[in-house]
Design a protein that fits this description.
The protein is an alpha+beta fold. It has one domain: Aminoglycoside phosphotransferase (APH), C-terminal lobe (Aminoglycoside 3'-phosphotransferase, Chain: A, domain 2, Alpha-Beta Complex). It contains nine helices and ten strands. A three-stranded antiparallel beta sheet has the order 1-4-3, with helices on one face. The protein has a three-stranded mixed beta sheet with strand order 2-9-8, covered by helices on one side. The protein has a two-stranded antiparallel ribbon with strand order 5-6.
């Protein structure tokens, strides 16, 4: 019998494992990065193929970047318009640790900044409560307004992993494999920004595979913007110095 990996939580919020299962199916596009194969799920568990760990290599990192670009150029599985803020399960997003997920109701839109503010940051400010004071909120508004006015490079919405920190890139002897998604349609640089934020093996090679040595001129600016969401989410979930990092990004952008 083939061994599998099971994640179980009897008190899981409705849709947690359905969202993961469907998200993995969304991400499994022809030519894209390998994703862990989902086998089955119900309200309290998900069963996945069991992966065997291997050493990270520059070649696998380059190929992962190349394939990630293919994923980001792919269309959603259903014949619906490519909007920002779509997700495979009822347009809900589960972000964070399995036992402490932050839950967001996406509001699909054709405008990136509406998606960024209304579907992601506004609800996150609600979770943050008094952590974000009035002055910091004005600083955020000023940063977003500046990004809009300066003509930040935008792209069509893309299928993104959505929580692509280094721990969700599983290295095997054959490839780098994506696990534990928060899949949705968003800006393609959301995935790259998270890889940069928390670090990943051979990030330089991943970027080379993705951009073919044609790096955008505003990449650092993009990363600072897209990482506002995961940094503040980590401040809400884990505290520590994440909030000061959030403010540092805001001052850079504003």
């Amino acid at each position: 019998m083939t061994k599998t990996f099971v994640k179980r939580w009897d008190l899981a919020p409705e849709g947690l494992f359905a969202s993961e299962y469907m998200g993995l199916e969304w991400l499994n596009v022809p030519g894209g990065p390998r994703v862990v194969r989902p086998i089955c799920y119900d309200q309290s568990h998900i069963e996945l193929e069991l992966l065997k760990e291997g050493p990270p290599t520059p070649d696998h990192a380059f190929e992962f970047g190349r394939r990630l670009k293919i994923l980001h150029n792919s269309h959603t599985p259903s014949a619906i318009p490519r909007l920002y803020g779509q997700s495979p399960y009822r347009n809900q997003l589960f972000f964070g640790p399995q036992r402490r997920p932050l839950i967001f109701q996406m509001r699909p839109t054709d405008n990136f900044f509406d998606y960024f503010v209304q579907s992601k940051m506004e609800p996150l400010f609600g979770y943050a409560g008094t952590m974000v004071n009035a002055a910091d909120r004005k600083l955020f508004d000023r940063a977003v307004s500046k990004c809009q006015s300066q003509g930040m490079i935008l792209f069509d919405s893309a299928i993104v992993h959505g929580d692509l920190w280094g721990g969700n890139v599983f290295w095997t002897a054959e490839a780098a494999i994506m696990i534990d998604p928060a899949a949705r349609t968003g800006h393609p640089f959301e995935d790259l920004a998270m890889l940069d934020l928390f670090g990943v093996n051979f990030f330089t090679q991943i970027l080379q595979g993705y951009f073919n040595d044609n790096l955008p001129t505003d990449l650092e600016y993009q990363f600072k913007l897209h990482n506002l969401f995961p940094i503040l989410a980590h401040a809400v979930l884990f505290g520590g110095g994440y909030y000061s990092q959030f403010l540092s990004n805001l001052y850079y952008l504003a």
